[in-house]
Amino acid sequence: MNIFVLLALGGAAGLLAGMFGVGGGFLATPLLIFVGIPPAVAVASQANQVVANSVSSLQVQLRRGNVDIRMGLVLLLGGMMGSGGGVWLFTYLKRIGQIDFVIAVTYVVMLSAIGLLMLYESATTYIRRRRNPEAPRGKLHTHYLVHRLPFKLRFYKSKLYISALLPIGLGFVIGILSAILGVGGGFVLVPAMIYLLGMPTTVVIGTSNFQILFVAANVTFLQAASNGTVDVVLALLLIVGGVVGAPIGSRIAARLPGVVLRGLMAVLVLAVAAELLTELLRTPSSQYSISGREAPL
Amino acid sequence: MRRLLALMVLGLALSSPAVAQRVEPPGSLPGPTLGSSPEPGTPPSVPNTSAMPDLIMDLAHPRVSITSAFQGETLLLFGMFDPPGEIVVVVAGPPSRETVMRKERFLGLWLNTGRQAFDDVPAYYFIAASQPLQRLLARGAGGEILSLEDRLSSVRSVGEREHQDLIRFRQGLVEVKRREGLYPANIGQVIVQAGRLFRADLPFPSRLPEGVYEVRAYLLREGRITAAVSRPLPVGKVGFSAELAGWAAQDGELYGLSAIALALLAGWFGGAVMRRV
Lengths: 297, 277
Prior knowledge:
The complex is a heterodimer of chains A (297) and B (277). Chain A is mostly helical and 297 residues long.
């Protein structure tokens, strides 16, 4: 595999991460699969990259005091269980030869859902702004049935008094996603923390980074130990690309209005989903393959 | 921007001694170190007799080294024989179990629905001959010289399966190996010069499985093997990628922890450096 292709890929993922404020993993992994890295290796090495990415963001958030450690730890409790279960599931699927298929299908579903939601959101915002630029934003924090669950805990920093089951469950789901897709899960976690838990947006990014760091580290460790699918060289190239790409991306982002940015992102996400889907639908050049063949770097 | 690059290089340089230290594999790996030249002392596989043997051969390199930039290579085999006669060369990779997966359409999507394992599948198989093989082996006296089809008819399937289906899986196996260049479709050409010198190019593709390959040369007279020489050909990763691969396989836990440590370091320092620019 060409080193410069991978560096460019890491850079592109970093650029996107910087532009859209997400980890970029959920775009980088499909891109790695497109250039021919086996999905199992792409996912596990991407998890390693997420560790670097989130520690880099976390150091800023910690300095600004934007991390709700208590909430982070509760999320992490679920996250560890979820990622443990996720890696177990991954190992099982790899053994029966279905892991590549499951990764592709899960990505198609996730990316289509997120892409459509973002497209819808940015389109409606755009239309609303054009009609009435002064329109106030809707209420963010509403109370649902989920707030009546037991084991309530007080989260001072988030100014919340909610059941611990909620963040634990959320962390669990993110952990599974992280193990199977190699993503940090920020693109699911952040909206869920805002809309589902009702956390103030100031602490959301830092706290999700906190949880993602540890979950991604756990996934990396478990993948390396049980599947041997972590490729450090690949991860390092992605990290270097990401470190360089992210600040450039955030500078580009600063010059574009948010609505346009989200619209662009939605189109990109949908394009990746469509490409993955056509690969699943296209008649393969050969019906046969040999299992367990990993591409050498 | 230049200052930034210098800082990054510095950061990498600072973190690399720690990395290099951890990279050492727990067990000593077989294989040479990076950039080693072929040992001058490696003797060709000449039988240890005082009399001049009927057949000798050697390879241009004693091993195939897979570096991270390996794009496949053509290895020259050469030798000499006592005329008259014809030469056949057989190169076989180490045998192992391979599991063949078959995709079928399910609700419009292609997914693996069938699997069949075979034991004793050679990782690589290549034959070269100085004349069309059929003619050389016409009398069926080739004995141990097996065409790919003959060689594969002996692989053992694991588990029960209907005969016709098994044949399809076996064909699928050959198809995949052909595509990867591991079972070259054509019989290679052994070129004979001056009636007694011979040479052949052994084609190795980029996705070459590691292991000790066996290179055999046969001297045939009137369809019978009158002499045969054999020598092992080690194929392995060398350098950094080899150490990493060996390490990842042998001690996954430590490898995983180091991967995390590396990511933490790179992320922390990389992020700190980039923010200052």
